[in-house]
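Appendix B. Chain record.
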Amino acid sequence: MKQTLLLVTLVSLSFLVVGCTTNHAKQRVEKYYTAFKNENYEKAFNHLLIFDKHYDAGTTLSESEAKDKYIKKINYLEQKGYQLKDFEIQEVRSDDGGPPIVQSLVTIKIDDKTKKVKEFIQVTENGLFIDLSEGDKYAHYRDGKMNVNIKKPK
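Structure tokens predicted for this chain:
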């Protein structure tokens, strides 16, 4: 009887922990998207995992240098007529005990053409990593990767 009670307690606690982690991950991604959608780019920046080439290696830039680089990336997006119009969190999961992954459907507008794209964001303790954005060739200009060549306007 004690073993059954212990097992039920442990299972209940694991569901509680997973539920809290899932809600926290969802909230963090929602805050990023909301800030970006509202053109509060500094706030959006503060939610991101900032890195140079690989997401687990960090950056050599100071925080102010990284913010400046991020704003340059955003300026490039604005020149392209890029806007994040809306988002919908579809699923939050954790694969093999790794960080939670949030799957979203993001509505973007580029030069008056609107489309919906699927996007995956890993929620790490150091920030959000936009892992994969299917169909959004400009997603890497709004993520935390600092080693991005910004094309000059024609």
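Further analysis of this model is presented in Appendix C.
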